[in-house]
Amino acid sequence: MTTQQTVRLTVAQAVVRFLANQWSERDGQRQKLFAGCFGIFGHGNVAGLGQALLQNELADGQEHLPYVLARNEQAMVHTSVAYARQKDRLQTWACTASVGPGSTNMLTGAALATINRIPVLLLPSGTFATRVSGPVLQELEQPYAADVTVNDAFRPLSRFFDRVNRPEQLPSALLGAMRVLTDPVETGAVTIALPQDVQAEAHDWPVELFAERVWRVARPLPEQVDIQDAAALARAAKRPLIVAGGGVHYSGAEDALRALCEQTGIPVGESQAGKGSLPHGHPQEMGAIGSTGTTAANALAADADLVIGVGTRWSDFTTASRTAFQNEDVRFVNINIARFDAGKHAGLSVVADAREALTALASELEGYAVEPAYRERQAALWAEWDAEVEAAYHPSAEVTDALAEGLLTQGEVLGAVNELTDPRDVVLCAAGSMPGDLHKLWRVRDRKAYHVEYGYSCMGYEVPASIGIRLADESRDVFAMVGDGGYLMMPTELVTAVQERVKVIVVLVQNHGFHSIGSLSESLGSQRFGTKYRYRDERSGRLEGAKLPIDLAANARSLGAHVIDVHSRAGLEQAIKEAKAAPADGGPVVIHVETDPTVYAPDSNAWWDVPVSSVSELDSTRAAYAEYTDHKARQRPLLAPPTTPDLGERTLP
Ligand SMILES: Cc1ncc(C[n+]2csc(CCOP(=O)(O)OP(=O)(O)O)c2C)c(N)n1
Ligand SMILES: [Mg+2]
Q: Is residue 404 a contact partner of residue 460, using CB atoms and an 8 Å limit?
């Protein structure tokens, strides 16, 4: 009889050693599952995980889990998520935080990860499992439930949650966490709460817990019968349309999509996460769809009789709050790895990996193509839209002459960045008016070159995410487009970029407040109330006085960034070139530019459902409500027609 070999380590040391030995694999390619661990220490992790990470950093002959000090716990989750998204969800980071506020600061990041279906491992610290010293500093006490801690708030935001109250629970917690992180259906925020006394407790672990483990990321195949039904629907359709979502990118299905489109002539509209599924200029590429869509994609959507969603979760922006698809008989086919999404809009569910399903569909559709007139329509619609984009990138003298000295339009800022970056450079954004403008206007030339977080649209994502994107691929420059509001939420990680000498380029677009919410407010009758960064006016007592004397360029400079202040189109172009030429290990570069928010991106007349007060003392609100009810009348439940069309004889295998 052999006795099982064991090794004596603390729980925290076991966590670090285990994480350093996890790998993911897809299509025969293997990579470390964890690039490292971000953290901010305090009581709860300084002596537990902190000691374990130190010991790991100093050890020779062991797999390493590099530690990086961040500035804000929410931000370090954003950095990890951006890294994982850029790595097609095959690699991520762990995040450790101290007891209480350190841990709950990660909640927003957890929600963002889960909503965007991006893997990240969160290790919030907990108060004592033994409770002997309680209540400790920062401990929540609930009279009705002695075992509740602030970390229970992670439960609804995580795809997997465990709290390790005894060392014996750790192996199953870790294995469960890895299973969910590497499962493309389940993935999102994964949380293992670690009470501070448990982290420091020693235990005899079986050595096999620390063996190298490889987690295969699955590519489930579609059911042949589903592919046959989908193909029959396509053959019966006159005006089919594909809607590409983030799943196209995560699966690496761009080539399969392109082949299907070229073979059949089916056009493609893209969600925010799916943008770049086809490159700009491809004949079937109709660009953004939905509330922030192009006129081309939205015109095709309006009378499409078959909509094939690929890897999309059908958010309200994608469906223009269920007004984008107006054909009475429109049917949906949903190719999705998650049955949950595949079932939406009463669509025909094709539960599979996107690349596999698109390849199977292309072969089932051999010999089928849309009519030439439909291809001609696509080309005409696209030419019309692309001319609008060109005009936004290069506004006429009539537009620019009307601007105050030193101000640019937002469209020309995006245009200059687009035209002066390399095709592989990454543009990044999350909240404000720029995500919508980027969705409409950005010309994507590489599959990983567009990164707009629009699942949670979280102000503050941009600066920390730029670090994650750059760490994921140092051969690309990263341009974080951030508004003044978003910048003020989370400029902190510029310091982390300085510390790690990470070259990120932040384009800080100053327009003195919330242009996005301001124009939304105005369109809903709320008169831009409370959306400008202004002094309180002495007479009216309202926030409509002079502009605040804030200098965000100086702010960025004070945090260690190299800042370029621009006041003209030529100055902006020069700044972009200078930023690109900056050293690869020179840390962050910030380009500060002021824009005139009253010049809008071209409109596609699409709608987004934001309810308006149904009774009001204000004329502006009453007018907006009348318009709102008109739009509401166009909203459709998007359920299948009552009778299923006859698909004809199906050849069974
Ligand atoms: C954390 C967070 N809080 C609030 C919002 C709601 N919100 C969306 S955009 C926006 C204003 C963004 O301002 P800024 O970054 O200056 O961009 P601009 O709208 O001026 O383009 C707000 C408050 C949000 N998306 N995220
Ligand atoms: Mg702003």
A: no
Residue identifier of the C-alpha nearest atom 3 of ligand 1: 459
Q: Is 333 helix (H, G, I), strand (E, B) or coil?
A: strand
Pocket test for ligand 1, best of 408, 457, 516, 594 (most atoms within 8 A of CB): 516
Residue 428 token pair: 């990044």
Beta bridge partners of 547: 534
User: The tokens of 653 are what?
Assistant: 């295998």
Strands across the sheet containing 331-336? 285-288, 268-270, 240-244, 306-310, 331-336, 348-351
Question: What's the confidence (pLDDT) of residue 648?
Answer: 57
**Residue 539, Cβ density class (10 Å: 0-12 exposed, 13-18 middle, ≥19 buried):** exposed
Q: Mind listing the pLDDT tens digit for each residue in 114-153?
A: 999 999 999 999 999 999 999 999 999 999 999 999 999 9
Instruction: In whole angstroms, give the CA distance from residue 582 to residue 540.
Output: 48
Tokens of 321: 């709050």
* pLDDT tens digits, 95-116: 999 999 999 999 999 999 999 9
Rounded to the nearest angstrom, the gap between the alpha carbon of residue 484 and the centroid of all alpha carbons in its chain is 20
User: Where are the extended beta strands (E) located within 280-438?
Assistant: 285-288, 306-310, 331-336, 348-351, 426-429
Place of tokens 């699942």: 455
322/330 Cα distance (integer angstroms): 12
The shares of helix, strand and coil residues in the chain, as percent rounded to the nearest 5, are: 40, 20, 45
Q: Rounded distance, CA 354 to CA 245, Å?
A: 10
Centre of ligand 1 to C-alpha 532, Å, is 11
Nearest to 85 by CA among 494, 453, 459, 440: 453
> Whose C-alpha lies nearest to ligand 1, atom 4?
459
**DSSP codes, 141-193:** --TT-TT--GGGGGGGG-SEEEE-SSGGGHHHHHHHHHHHHT-TTT-SEEEEE
Give yes or no for a contact between 377 and 362, defined as CB atoms under 8 angstroms apart.
Answer: no
